[in-house]
Amino acid sequence: MPEVIFNGPAGRLEGRYQPSKEKSAPIAIILHPHPQFGGTMNNQIVYQLFYMFQKRGFTTLRFNFRSIGRSQGEFDHGAGELSDAASALDWVQSLHPDSKSCWVAGYSFGAWIGMQLLMRRPEIEGFMSIAPQPNIYDFSFLAPCPSSGLIINGDSDKVAPEKDVNGLVEKLKTQKGILITHKIVEGANHFFNGQVDTLMGECEDYLDRRLVGELVPEPAAKRIR
C-alpha cells in the first residue's frame, strides 16, 4: 500500500492509502487511538479496519495525527486532530471526485474524532466507533447523529466503562431516522487483547450487512389523510 504525505493544517501528514480500482467507490478513513498514549496508524486494530474496507473495494486511508511518525505539528487535544481528519478526507476526495459516499471508523480517541467528523460531513453515510470513551470525551455534539453506524466495546473495558458506553448508545437510539447497532465483546478490555479477531468479525459482519442494504432505519410511516 502506498505511503503518502499530504498537507494538513499544521504541516505535512503521513498516511497509508489504497485507491480502489472503481472510480466511484466509496471512501473509508480510519482514525487511530490517542497520540499521547501510543496511538498510531500502525495500531493493529486500525490496520485491520483498513484492510477490511480495502478488501471490500473501498478507497481507503489511514494516517498519523499531527506529531506522530512523520506527521508534523503538536498534539492539540482533539481540535487540531479533527482538522487533520477533515484535511485527510479532503485530500482523498480531491483524488476521487466521482466518489459520492464515505465511511469513518475510529478506535478509542479516534472514535471521538470520527463522530465529530461525521457531524461536519454529510457525505459520511456510515461509521464504526470502537471503544469510544464518553466517560472522558463529550459526545453531546451528536444532536442529532446524522448517520447509522456501529458502536462496539468490551464488557471488561476499564478505560471506557460499559455503563458509560451504554448511556451513549441509549441516547443515540432515541433518535429517529438512524439505526445504531451496539455490539459487546465479552471479556474484552479496551485493547481487545486476545479478542481482535472477534472484534473484527463483528465489524466485518456489520459492514457486509450494510453493503447489501440491511441495518438501515425503517422508513417513516406515511400519514393517512
Task: Based on the model shown, name its key terms.
hydrolase activity; alpha/beta; 225 residues; Rossmann fold; eight-stranded mixed β-sheet; 31% helix
Compact overview of the structure:
This protein has helices at 44-55, 79-95, 109-120, 162-173, 196-211; strands at residues 3-8, 11-18, 27-31, 59-63, 102-107, 124-130, 149-154, 180-185. It has 225 residues and is an alpha/beta fold.
Helix/strand order, N-terminal first: EEEHEHEHEEHEH
Rg to the nearest angstrom?
17 Å
Across the major sheet, the strand order is: 1-2-4-3-5-6-7-8
- Into how many domains do the coordinates divide? 1
What general outline do the C-alpha atoms trace? globular
With helices defined by DSSP (H or I, 4 residues minimum), what is the helix count?
5
Q: Which class do the helix and strand fractions yield?
A: alpha/beta
State the major sheet.
Answer: 8 strands, mixed
**What is the share of helical residues?**
25-40%
Organism: Aliirhizobium cellulosilyticum
Protein name: Xaa-Pro dipeptidyl-peptidase-like domain-containing protein
Domain Xaa-Pro dipeptidyl-peptidase-like: 17-138
InterPro entries: AB_hydrolase_fold, Xaa-Pro-like_dom
